[in-house]
């Protein structure tokens, strides 16, 4: 028998459901009855007229049976039918014992027996009241099986539900406000992953970032992206004292996000699969739980992002590291959504604003670093302004929801800014700015309105792009 | 399952988990799915989802771990609120048009929706081996011998799983009077 392909994409959601069983119960099983009718009514009418299972064409004497005839096992799916069992029609029913016949009732109700067995069971049902009762009951139960129909949960519902709860009574142990964006973005990405089948999990994704001079990229899959997020979330996890999801890293110093990711990808013998979702989601929940219990003061805890080339170390306070992780989660969720051709919205304006603010605050350091590396033009006076005194400033105007205005010190991260020293003004859309900072838009192509010192503007846009990494 | 679901000090923990969204992340699709099965409407299911989580938030001590798994309790709560809503909207529709005969239809509708939602829950909660067998035999149209081969079990075992799975599922019809909160738990 050829049978239907077990992994026919049409039935993806059906087989996906066992894997979801232990995790969170999943969204399976919530498809709706195609006809919107009570199911048990339809089976009796359908039975003999259905597309026919392996049982087609026998049914000795329906009138004698007090139960509906077998229904088709799949409605309206257009799946290829299994080849008929090819019985010799009219062959004498098998002589089977009562216990065997009873054990066949489930398979019979599902039209999953051979034709001979079906005939033998039905013969038996005419004589055995208890089997006939059970047969009717099981056949009715078959009518309650529904192909699960993936339902997209509105991601905004989570926010509304939680906000509704919190508005009624503040929680005893609140999630610090700087962790909200991470909580929301991980939940949104998890919702996107909810209905992915194997095809989606293995869809190719190209990670892109700006390496300081040009766009760099690395090929992976959707599962590989989640592995990447998990590996880099490990930076925050270890800072909080949680277990590191990445094994085999040098113990003496913090590994950079790229090193962590490569180590994680290397450590498994096979390319990442959908199984990476559970540890990723568990870690993100653990992180939110831990920062909540640790309280708002944990926000200052330093999270190391690994060494710089010249022996220094990049570190962010936890509150900023959580924003950075939220930002990366969104950026990669967009990469994934693009790879599988799903729509994906930007973060809520409140969260987007915080992400933009983080990037704006990191710009002066990025600028200084590029200048040190000879990649940015030195200041016009060829000297740094003393710390704490106003220096040349660039007005960064971010438009759209979540936007705002930031003055960026151009001469030194330690300089203060002043509108009186404004030498340039750049205006960008918020999402466009984030794509630039993610290395997804080359600096020279960023759609920015510009007034003033061209060189300063170019340096700032390049510095924004250089905030990105794998 | 009951142990995992009901840690000590579960009431406070439940509220804390809800505040962090974990509780929502774990049960939202169950709640929304069951509500949708009863109401067959996205917005109504959204509203019931909000009601369920708000209820849990305001009554963190309403769940008694002795009565069964948390998941079962959440399902029963969802069922109750969804049926309440179905009945309320159905009754409102009745007064608009001709009442009388269609009151019985509403009862029937409530009953069918209840059974369908309960069946969904039973399928989701039944032991994975039973669910896998039903999935192969019904949705993938495998006969029981193929099902046995696919699952790597004997044919006897495949027959047993199919029969047991359907027996569990058939208890969906056993709910009490129409629309009464059913005993979620037979299959949990």
Task: Give a verbal description of the structure.
The complex is a heterodimer of chains A (470) and B (188). Chain A is an alpha+beta fold. Chain A has 3 domains: 9-142, no CATH class; 155-345, Four Helix Bundle (Hemerythrin (Met), subunit A), CATH 1.20.120; 363-465, 2-Layer Sandwich (Nonspecific Lipid-transfer Protein, Chain A). Helices cover 42% and strands 11% of the residues of chain A. Chain A has 16 helices and 8 strands. Chain A has helices spanning 12-20, 39-46, 98-103, 105-109, 115-125, 129-142, 155-168, 180-193, 198-201, 222-239, 257-267, 277-294, 318-340, 349-372, 430-437, 454-465; strands spanning 204-210, 215-221, 302-307, 313-317, 393-399, 404-409, 422-429, 449-452. A 4-stranded mixed β-sheet of chain A has the order 6-5-7-8. In chain A, strands 1-2 form a two-stranded antiparallel ribbon. In chain A, strands 3-4 form a two-stranded antiparallel ribbon. Chain A starts with 11 loop residues before the first helix and ends in a 5-residue tail after the last helix. Residues 1-78 and 80-88 of chain A have low confidence and may be disordered. Chain B is mainly alpha-helical and 188 residues long. Chain B has a domain at 2-126: Orthogonal Bundle (Rna Polymerase Sigma Factor, Chain: A), CATH 1.10.1740. Chain B has helices spanning 2-5, 10-20, 22-39, 42-58, 70-96, 101-125, 128-139, 144-151, 155-170. Chain B starts with a helix and ends in an 18-residue tail after the last helix. Chain B: Keywords: Sigma factor, Transcription, Transcription regulation. Chain B: One of its GO terms (molecular function) is sigma factor activity. Chain B: Belongs to the sigma-70 factor family. ECF subfamily. Chain B: It comes from Streptomyces adustus. Chain B: This is Sigma-70 family RNA polymerase sigma factor.
